[in-house]
Specification:
single chain; about 375 residues; mainly alpha; two-stranded antiparallel sheet; 15 helices; about 5% strand; globular
């Protein structure tokens, strides 16, 4: 469901195609609500959530402090920079993401404060709220509407609706290094471009007040001071050493972010639907989410702890206002209800399995699509008539 009051100039609609399946989401919501009521649980964060916040935010502070202490050799500082990048991604997954969705706490102010952990990592909350909460969560995997599948226009093709180019023959090889540039792009380029666009996808990118402009420039400036100026001023390192550390930090953060997000939507079994001639998607919104979203590694304790519930992407898309610490339990309800209504529940059992599936999708939309197009344009041999 669209989570903001943001509107589109030409609203794409979801139209129920199957009367029985139309009852899927209402039934599921009742069962999930009953789970929380029967177990006397809040849908928001609990002690486990606050402990994760302390660990991951504390990790970012720790590794930053170790680097800025100047007590370590350049190779050790490089190691701390890599760890800092990983923990920055974990903060994004486990703290910022929930807070910006409003699922971190029942306290609106606390959600806002914790959401700005995203700002301290160099990204912009307002841009994310429109591009992710509104566009991606509403129009998942719909080309031209969901900018999350528009990762690197002209270089990566994530659906059949996107234009095919010759370089994409190799996208299954260069996609992963490109993912590593994701956070660096956010910090230096993409946020500025999206902030000043009238629309993100097909969603109007309105600024509620002047505070949006202040937040963009203030937090970007603060990030540049903390992560560029201060290390160059106070650390006994050369500019090339700094650049290597800064780049490795962002490559680590970007690769972790990119892989987790892509494994949830661009894997085998997920759909990339296009609107019909009337501009509608011929299924209701919840069923659309079940066709375009996938889970991975549900039984992995490591994935469950580090990914902030993004390996339970189905549950997250259906219930974005529920804190991710509850997803494992409600996933059992979602899976059973999906089976009952004949709705797909797409899942890769392991992280490696999801990674392989994503790799095959990259080949399908790139190399294999080009080969098929070339084969289709070859002149067909004319049958020989025997006299």
């Amino acid at each position: 469901m669209q989570e903001t009051k943001t509107t589109t100039a030409k609203m794409l609609r979801f139209v129920d195609a199957d009367p029985k399946k139309a009852q899927f989401y209402s039934t599921l919501r009742k069962r999930v609500d009953a789970y929380f009521q029967d177990n006397n649980l809040s849908k928001k964060g609990n002690f486990a959530m606050f402990l994760k916040s302390f660990i991951f935010c504390g990790g970012v502070i720790l590794f930053y402090a170790l680097i800025m202490s100047g007590q370590f050799s350049p190779p050790m500082m490089l190691l701390w920079a890599i760890c800092l990048g990983a923990f920055a991604a974990f903060v994004g997954f486990n703290v910022s993401h929930d807070a910006i969705h409003g699922s971190y706490s029942n306290n609106t102010l606390l959600n806002k404060i914790m959401g700005h952990s995203f700002s301290l990592l160099g990204a912009n909350v307002d841009v994310w709220r429109v591009s992710h909460n509104a566009a991606h969560h509403t129009y998942t995997n719909i080309a031209g509407h969901d900018e999350d599948i528009d990762v690197a226009p002209g270089l990566l093709r994530m659906s059949e609706a996107e234009k095919l180019k010759g370089i994409m023959r190799y996208q299954h090889l260069y996609a992963f290094p490109l993912y590593g540039l994701a956070s660096l792009s956010w910090v230096l380029r993409k946020d500025y471009i999206k902030f000043f666009k009238e629309k993100i996808g097909q969603v109007e990118n309105r600024k509620e007040s002047g505070w949006a402009y202040f937040n963009l420039f203030f937090f970007k400036f603060l990030y540049y001071i903390m992560f560029i100026a201060l290390p160059l001023i106070f650390l006994d390192i050369t500019v090339p050493q700094f650049l290597l550390g800064f780049l490795m930090m962002h490559l680590t953060e970007g690769l972790v972010l990119g892989l987790v997000f892509q494994l949830a939507h661009v894997v085998e079994g997920t759909d990339f639907p296009s609107p019909n001639q009337e501009g509608n998607i011929e299924e209701n919104w919840a069923i659309h989410q079940m066709h375009t979203t996938a889970n991975f590694a549900r039984e992995s304790a490591i994935a469950n702890y580090l990914c902030g519930g993004l390996n339970f992407q189905i549950e997250h898309h259906l219930f974005p206002h529920i804190c991710h610490v509850h997803y494992k339990e409600i996933s059992k309800i979602v899976e059973a209800t999906a089976k009952e209504f004949g709705v797909p529940y797409i899942e890769n059992k392991t992280f490696v399995g999801a990674l392989k599936s994503h790799y095959r999708c990259l080949k399908k939309f790139g190399k294999e699509a080009l080969e098929a197009a070339q084969q289709a344009t070859k002149p067909q041999a004319q049958p020989v008539e025997l006299s």
